[in-house]
Write a structure and sequence with these properties.
- The chain is about 30% helix and about 30% strand.
- The chain is of the alpha+beta class and about 180 residues long.
- The chain has one domain: Gcn5-related N-acetyltransferase (GNAT) (Aminopeptidase, 3-Layer(aba) Sandwich).
- Strand 7 and strand 8 form a beta hairpin.
- The longest helix has 15 residues.
């Protein structure tokens, strides 16, 4: 990875910049997989900032020249995906010996896509989760994200159609990996 990128733990002061990055990433990298209306609906709850991850210290940002250009994290809590606006969140703490850590909310700015940032962030999150006792990981992948996760050893489950508040459906793919 290019040394001009820097990784750090996300802070609550990053939330507004993360919202902009997530929207830009979702709109810029979802063409051919989701319609603009689906992306707009997903940004109302499925995609977005989960401040619990930031508070837990398990969400990271990659910066270049001070600007946040990628983000992603992992969680020891039961929520699989969704922002603060999604009602189906479950803050229960997972048992690392029997349950899988959740890989969460990966977004890359389109201008920085295909440069290894997602893979680098994913490896960092898996390493951190392993240090906390987890040997299994799961995530709810977007259609464009599926390609990254497959290359990194994740196995796809049966796609799930998530109904959004705007009445549209967003296809999410459960994915799993064991170490």
């Amino acid at each position: 990875m290019n040394e001009s990128y820097q990784l750090r733990v996300a802070q609550l002061s990053d939330v507004e910049e993360l919202r902009v990055l997530i929207s830009t990433s979702a709109h810029g990298l979802s063409h051919g997989d989701y319609s603009e209306e689906q992306v707009d609906g997903a940004l109302q709850g499925v995609f977005g900032v989960d401040t619990q991850l930031i508070t837990d210290g398990t969400y990271y940002v990659m910066t270049k020249e001070g600007a946040v250009v990628a983000c992603g994290g992992w969680s020891y809590r039961a929520t699989l995906f969704g922002s603060d606006n999604l009602n189906s969140r479950d803050p229960r703490k997972l048992n690392p010996t029997t349950e899988a850590a959740k890989i969460r909310a990966f977004f890359v700015h389109p201008d920085h896509a295909r440069q290894g940032l997602g893979r680098w962030l994913l490896t960092h999150c898996e390493d951190c989760a392993q240090k906390s006792g987890f040997s299994k990981f799961e995530l709810g992948s977007t259609l464009p994200g599926k390609r990254l996760y497959e290359v990194c050893g994740y196995i796809s489950g049966e796609p799930v159609d998530h109904e959004m508040e705007n009445g549209l459906i967003l296809r999410v793919i459960p994915m799993y990996k064991s170490i």
